[in-house]
Design a protein that fits this description.
The chain has 435 residues and is mostly beta strands. It folds into two domains: 77 residues, Roll (Ubiquitin-like (UB roll)), CATH 3.10.20; 348 residues, Porin (Beta Barrel). Helices cover 8% and strands 57% of the residues. A 16-stranded antiparallel sheet has the order 5-6-7-8-9-12-13-14-15-16-17-20-21-22-23-24. Strands 2-1-4-3 form a four-stranded mixed sheet, covered by helices on one side. The two termini are 44 Å apart.
């Protein structure tokens, strides 16, 4: 019996809007390829994972049909997502949901309107526009084209964002942000960028971004913190350039259980500027595997460092915003950079299930998938700070237990009970990628 099979043709079903080449781009095979039978199921599974990671589909089933010993056809059946999202914005505007809840930051609310058109023209293009007012006003537009000129390797994104605030965190005291409010706008900034992406293979991306940023503060904010921007400047304008390398072989965009991710980045803020020059470098690695049935391990290392020798409050964000060890969510630790190690052991409490909500007629919402995992977590981190602020230049850690909920539309929610270095306990919520 032959140990291989030749792919005669590939058939795609369910793509009512998506162009076939968008799906075919994610396949680790093409018509005419020879596949080794012992690895056939694993290859088809990889194809399904790759298609789902485009965030265009709720379901993707890849299987063989019309097999006759040495040749076969491939059938791909997808269930497309809902692509047009006109969404009213009403959200908390604190550093994270935990500080908003525990510190009674209920006055920090944003509201407005967000419009997103995903899979524009069926080519995986993304149009976004936002009008947000409240605690932090934001007006913005972005257009992402992952397949420029129908190329499988070149992509482009343009973005324009404008922010302004009447209430601002102007400094950190005892690892808490201190806010000031005025009737005038205290802080205004804008960012304009164009990003070029090159994707030579299924799992590798190169990204180069050119950006232009402006910062302006009111005199009353300058008096409170002359170093709010950088080097006692009332205003600052500068260009920047950055490069990102990404190698992603995980099986999910929101909650991976298998595979690895490696990212490396460099950035120069203040390109051709005589007022500032802040080079930044970063490395992130993630590894996911299953040593036993229903047991999944997750490990990640994240390092980021900015080379500046004069304090600038808006450039000194380390723990307490996008990243922080578990159990330290309520603390703000400023610095030049950080190192963070996150680790989890997860038990599949409820395996992935598919459920049909028969009262909903639209398949994009009626057919859902979900899973629950019980996790044991342990994190450790270190903030590098040349200005010797509290809790920097020392190890911080947290550990505990969590319940993770994963469902369609890339939703992954975690509820953690964590204990930090100071034996402080708390229940914390996370609405983002798992690790």
């Amino acid at each position: 019996m032959a140990q291989y099979v030749i792919i005669d043709s590939i058939h795609i079903q369910g793509n009512k809007k998506t162009k076939p080449f968008i799906i075919e781009r994610e396949l680790p095979f093409k018509s005419g390829d020879t596949l080794w039978l012992p690895y056939l199921n694993k290859t088809l599974e990889k194809a399904s994972y790759n298609i789902l990671k485009t965030s265009l589909f709720n379901f993707a089933i890849v299987d063989t049909i019309h097999s006759n010993g040495t040749s076969t056809d491939i059938l791909i059946h997808v269930v497309e997502r809902w692509y047009l999202w006109p969404i009213p914005v009403f959200e908390q505007a604190s550093r994270n949901i935990n500080t908003w809840f525990y510190e009674n930051d209920y006055d920090k609310i944003n509201y407005g309107f967000f419009l997103a058109q995903a899979n524009f023209r069926g080519r995986d293009e993304l149009l976004r526009a936002i009008v947000r007012v409240g605690f932090r006003e934001q007006y913005g537009f972005a257009y992402t084209i992952p397949h420029l000129f129908r190329s499988n390797t070149l992509g482009l994104e343009t973005k324009a964002l404008y922010y302004r605030q009447k209430q601002v965190a102007y400094q950190t005291i005892d690892n808490k942000p201190c806010y000031v409010y005025r009737k005038n706008y205290l802080y205004t900034n804008s960012d304009y960028s164009i990003t070029f992406t090159y994707r030579p293979g299924l799992y590798v991306w190169h990204q180069v971004e050119f950006a232009y940023s402006t910062h302006l503060i009111h005199d009353s904010l300058f008096k409170l913190n002359p170093s709010f921007i950088y080097k006692n400047y009332h205003s600052l304008e500068y260009a920047s350039i950055s490069y990102l390398f990404k190698w992603d072989k995980t099986n999910s965009i929101s909650y991976p259980t298998k595979g690895f991710l490696l990212e490396a980045s460099v950035m120069d803020e203040g390109l051709f500027s005589t007022k500032m020059q802040i080079p930044t470098m970063g490395v992130k690695s993630e590894y996911f595997y299953s040593p036993f049935r229903k047991i999944y391990m997750a490990h990640a290392i994240n390092y980021n460092y900015s080379f500046f020798d004069e304090h600038g409050y808006i450039f000194s964000k380390a723990f307490g915003y996008l990243v922080t060890p578990r159990g330290m969510e309520l603390y703000l630790v400023d610095g030049n950079g950080y190192f963070l190690s996150t680790n989890s052991v997860r038990w599949e409490l409820v395996p992935p299930k598919v459920k049909n909500i028969y009262k909903l007629k639209n398949e994009r919402f009626a057919k859902i998938h979900y899973a629950f995992y019980l996790s044991l977590n342990a994190d450790a981190g270190y903030v590098f700070n040349n200005f010797d602020e509290k809790l920097s230049n020392q190890w911080l850690y947290g550990y505990g237990i969590g319940l993770d909920f994963v469902t369609y539309y890339d939703i992954a929610l975690s509820v953690d009970f964590s204990i930090n270095k100071f034996a402080q306990k708390g229940i914390f919520f996370h609405f983002s990628k798992f690790i």
